[in-house]
Amino acid sequence: LYTVKSVGSLDTFGCLYANRFDPTQSSLNLLTYDDQNGDNDQFAITTTLSSNTVYYLAATTNREGSSGSFKVTISGPAKATMRAV
Length: 85
What we know:
This protein is mostly beta strands. The protein has no helices and 6 strands.
């Protein structure tokens, strides 16, 4: 199991996709999503990840017009590599 979570002061929402993310078809390839399982109104997604799959995280704020910085952390039994696109 891995946990992907946001850390910051913004109220965030996260969606995790497998293999492909198409914002025009947001339910396609959706594995799971979360809104409030993390601390301080943050998302925290806990799920099983496979080493042979590319995952996409779509993260946003819950309030229109909100902006600011936050970070994403991943914890689990093996190393995970993230890159922003």
